[in-house]
């Protein structure tokens, strides 16, 4: 006789488990009587196994494309896409203190990418705290003044002493001259961060066959990277 010791995967291994019927595929379901979480020990689809979502996201954040993730984990491409579409990234940071929202220097830059074809560019605009080395906020769009204004709107509640940018003329037309510093010398850290993004997220690489086919996937994967590394 084999006795199985079951533990709830959600509430730190609680052993107060009871049977809870069967799934549509015929597998036994269990329920934790403490947190009411329902789970299984056997799955017909590998993509539904516990921890699969975390594996898919971790691979996407470390240079793996969707098809590569599908091959390595042995699951379908559609399963990978469904998991990534569940991401809910932020577009602004929590490191800006609402009570003391003073930022010494905010470096701003824009990074090129595309969706579907190179004729359809989608730019990432973001602001970077040069002192704390944290991304402050980001937006996606075309390389226009309107997109830059959306970024500045997210920074509206913060008191920024200096803006540091490259020589793109639109910055000079929007930012106050007394606070605006122009020069590649002051944008080295954000340029280094641009390289990190292209290294860690495969769909941002310049020479690759991996690219986003929808703005939703493009924005969510990049946005989630910024969320877990800068906004949390």
Question: What this model shows, in words?
Answer:
With 232 residues, the protein is α+β, with helices and mostly antiparallel strands. The chain folds into three domains: 1-44; 46-86; 102-231, Ribonuclease H-like superfamily/Ribonuclease H (Nucleotidyltransferase, domain 5, 2-Layer Sandwich), CATH 3.30.420.10. Helices cover 31% and strands 24% of the residues. The chain contains seven helices and ten strands. The protein has helices spanning 52-60, 66-73, 77-85, 145-154, 169-174, 188-200, 215-231; strands spanning 17-22, 28-32, 38-40, 102-111, 114-115, 117-121, 123-129, 134-141, 159-165, 180-182. The strands form three sheets. Strands 8-7-4-9-10 form a five-stranded mixed beta sheet, sandwiched between helices. Helix 5 (169-174) links the parallel strand 9 (159-165) and strand 10 (180-182). Helix 2 crosses helix 3. The N and C termini lie far apart (48 Å). The relative contact order is 0.13.
């Amino acid at each position: 006789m084999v006795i199985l010791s079951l533990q709830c995967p959600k509430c730190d291994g609680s052993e107060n488990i009871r049977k809870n019927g069967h799934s549509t595929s015929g597998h036994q379901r269990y329920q934790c009587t403490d947190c009411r979480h329902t789970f299984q020990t056997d799955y017909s689809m590998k993509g539904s196994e516990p921890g699969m979502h975390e594996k898919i996201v971790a691979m996407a954040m470390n240079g793996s494309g969707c098809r590569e993730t599908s091959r390595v984990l042995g699951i379908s491409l559609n399963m990978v896409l469904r998991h990534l579409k569940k991401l809910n990234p932020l577009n602004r940071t929590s490191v800006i203190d609402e009570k003391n929202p003073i930022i010494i220097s905010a470096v701003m830059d824009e990074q090129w990418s595309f969706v579907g074809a190179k004729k359809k560019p989608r730019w990432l605009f973001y602001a970077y705290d040069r002192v704390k080395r944290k991304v402050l906020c980001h937006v996606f769009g075309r390389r226009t003044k309107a997109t830059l204004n959306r970024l500045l709107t997210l920074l509206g509640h913060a008191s920024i002493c200096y803006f540091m940018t490259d020589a793109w003329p639109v910055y000079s037309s929007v930012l106050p001259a007394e606070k605006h510093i122009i020069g590649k010398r002051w944008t080295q850290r954000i340029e280094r961060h641009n390289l990190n993004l292209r290294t860690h997220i495969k769909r941002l690489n310049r020479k690759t066959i991996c690219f986003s086919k929808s703005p939703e996937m493009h924005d969510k994967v990049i946005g989630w990277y910024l969320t877990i590394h800068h906004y949390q």
